[in-house]
Write a structure and sequence with these properties.
CATH class of the largest domain: Alpha Beta
Largest sheet: 11 strands, mixed
Distance between the termini: 41 Å
GO molecular function, one term: acyltransferase activity, transferring groups other than amino-acyl groups
Order of helices and strands: HEEEHEHEEHHEEEHEHE
Protein name: GNAT family N-acetyltransferase
Number of strands: 11
Structural class: alpha+beta
Radius of gyration: 18 Å
Pfam families: Rv0428c_C (PF24553)
Keywords: Acyltransferase, Transferase
CATH topology of the largest domain: Aminopeptidase
CATH architecture of the largest domain: 3-Layer(aba) Sandwich
CATH superfamily of the largest domain: Gcn5-related N-acetyltransferase (GNAT)
Number of helices: 7
Oligomer: single chain
């Protein structure tokens, strides 16, 4: 079975990690979610052939984001038009966070015996995620607002050891693709196989929800995560990055 193409993965990602506000401009999509994650607070192009008036549209999209009190960000994938990329180059936009999309056909995975699944907005899950992610209350509120927009099957996945929550993630199934996000483990318990146990548990849940494929985003310099995902069967599909105005932060 061949894997979906970049457009299929990107469109599934829109459903698995939604913006709170979205606006299409041709094949360019603007998204805002209170600043919580660049993925949900950025503009991206879904058609390389949609390049008319790229310079004007970059300004318009940037203004739209500023009006929503988020920083102008473009997500650049293989679907971005060359003219968009050239426009950002000419305006001296910087490249940050080079990343990859990994994916695989979804086989059978056995959930960890301690795995627990929550509705994404379950207060218990939110409290666990806040502790493991070291989120302040404002960041937690922003995450909660984003999760409230989910309209596809989704679950908070939690792994326990010695009665304590030690790893968590959010799994969503969109268009037959199980997409993992917000992977985190207790920093005092790393190198204990917890991330792998959490991933297997989430993938088992996604399979039960009817997913045929699995995908996730991983930052390019996160070698440990890439090794983990490769060991589970994921393979590199394509690269993407973000562009921001001015000097890289």
């Amino acid at each position: 079975m061949s894997l979906p193409d970049a457009e299929a993965f990107e469109r599934a990602g829109l459903l698995a990690w939604p913006g709170i506000e979205e606006k299409w401009d041709g094949a360019w999509l603007r998204r805002a979610a209170g600043g919580y994650t660049k993925r949900a607070n950025s503009t991206q192009c879904f058609d390389p052939d949609d390049f008319e008036d790229a310079d004007v549209r970059v300004i318009s999209a940037s203004s739209w984001m500023v009006l929503r009190k988020i920083k102008p960000v473009f997500r650049i994938t293989p679907l971005s038009s060359p003219e968009l990329n050239a426009t950002l180059d000419e305006a001296d936009w910087q490249t940050i966070d080079p990343s990859h999309l990994f994916a695989m056909e979804l086989g059978d995975f056995e959930a960890d015996a301690s795995a627990e699944y929550f509705a994404p907005l379950d207060p218990k899950f939110l409290a666990i995620a806040q502790r493991l992610q070291s989120y302040d209350d404002a960041t937690l509120a922003a995450m909660k607002a984003l999760l409230a927009m989910l309209a596809v099957p989704a679950a908070g996945v939690v792994i326990h050891r010695d009665g304590e929550a030690v790893a968590s993630s959010i799994m969503a199934v969109a268009n037959g693709i199980g997409i993992t996000g917000n992977v985190v483990t207790d920093p005092t318990r790393r190198r204990q196989g917890l991330a792998a146990a959490m991933m297997r548990s989430g993938l088992s849940w996604a399979k039960d929800q009817g997913a045929k494929f699995a995908a996730l985003n991983v930052q390019g310099d996160n070698e440990a995560a890439k090794a983990l995902y490769t060991g589970l069967g994921y393979t590199h599909q394509y690269d993407y990055h973000y562009r921001i105005p001015g000097a890289a932060k």
